[in-house]
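Homework help board

Subject: predicted structure for assignment chain

Our instructor gave us this sequence and asked us to write out the predicted structure in token form, then describe one feature. I got the tokens but I'm not sure how to describe them. Can anyone check?
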Amino acid sequence: MPVFESDVCIVGGGISSAMFAQRLSELRAGVSIIIVEAGESIFDRKNRDRYRQRASRYGENPWPGDVIADQAATNIISRTMAVGGSALHWGGTCNRFSEEDLRLKSLYGLYVDWPLEWSELERFYCEAERRIGVSGEPSPFKEDARSQPYPMGPLPLTWNLRQLKTWGDQSGIPFQPTPQAKNTRPYDGRAVCVRCGTCDICPTGARYSPDFTFKQLLAAKKITLHDRTLVRRLVPREGASSIAAAQAVHRDRPDEPLEYRARQFIVASGYAWSAHLLLLSTSSRYPAGLANRSGLVGKYMNGHSFTTAMFEVPVDIYPGMNPDYGLISRQFFRCATDVPYVRNDLRIWENPGATTPRLKDDGGRMLFGDEVIADWRARKPRGTARVRAYTDVHPDKTSELTLDQAVKNRWGDPMPRIEHRLDMQTQARAERTDAQVRGIFDRLAKLGDTKIVSTSKGQYLDHPAGGCRMGHDPATSVCDSYGQTHDHDNLFVVGAPTLPSAGCTNGTLTFVALTLRSADRVAETFPKSGAG
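My token output:
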């Protein structure tokens, strides 16, 4: 059986893996790092403009090869399995959480507090923004004060967003552009965003993607990458609680087992596959899986709920102008401690489903130059806006990932099943939460000749996380604030799985910030370069 040895073995090849490896390799030059990823290495930037064109014209998947047919979780949002993970085709939105997210118990008597201080997380937010290259403008709210400026100024607002900002600001709710992992100047060897509107497959590299970091690390020989290799089990050391090895199989050689041995094991497999791996790693000593003395691996799966409204607005909107870019208001991020608890963010985008320009008229005649614009204006209905509120909800213990014995991969491993369930306090305030969101939408609807066309509630929790929540107490958590598992001193879980709750806005920047902090802790287990 082939055996690979290293100082650090990272399981998973997404954004948390990339950031962890980059940070650790800087702090401890010479530490050997192997990254093991089940999916493909899609290092084909030269083809991305062609993929983008085919996706636009024919609706094709712009990321061919980014899934594994028999490696799928029930109720997962994204099936992407490739080097770079879901952040290969994320939108790039980089909102921060707020201090309230870390102090739910102490401020409001709800759910749990996070096991770290806001000032500590804020410091690593700045580091995360620097590494992935975030463009943004400061929030107008003093509670959002920053210790460092954004690395780049904000993306310019499109014509559509300027009109929508003017419309929204009239309500007295201040809106600003969402911070984006998109370049407004050349940054880290990547181009400036040209706002082509296909952020799910950026053809220029202006939107950050983890494959850029992996390619840099590989070129500098700071990591070894084993793709198409699925880690199926972690194995504890005989007579000790530490982890000795990761057992894996290469997809091209399915009958030939592999083994990875390391001093430190880092599980960076996202919110679904991290807990899944720990639950699969059963033995006579650990019948419930690894890091699971508390019985909480796979528990407290979280995310946030959302409500969307489509508005007809009294402004000229021309759909197709960078529709992934939007506005945010953080006015409702906070909740006073002497009133019933409700928190949400508020977002505005152009409606991407509205009328777009065309090159042929109804009779098939080609349109050129000003004819395109004239035809577009003639067909364009009233301006429409998509408005969404992400609301803070808290998971019940039974909000869980379990092993589904009815669905297995080719090696017989049961696949994950995720069922989100909200705690009783969240359920009790559901009507109040809905009323606040409806009140905000009604407030916007009173602006001139504005009309709500439709309203819908999301049927899933967005921006999911959890499954290995962090905490001080080993009885009520899986790992500490650095992701170090309570049960195994050389086993860390990093990124999304460690979040106790998902706040009321996008989580990727928070995943990265926590991961960088974990890398600092792991670095402390190795001597500095040149140290005796």
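Reply (TA_rk): Your tokens look well-formed. For the description, you could write something like this. The first strand starts at residue 3 and ends at 11. That's the kind of observation they're looking for.
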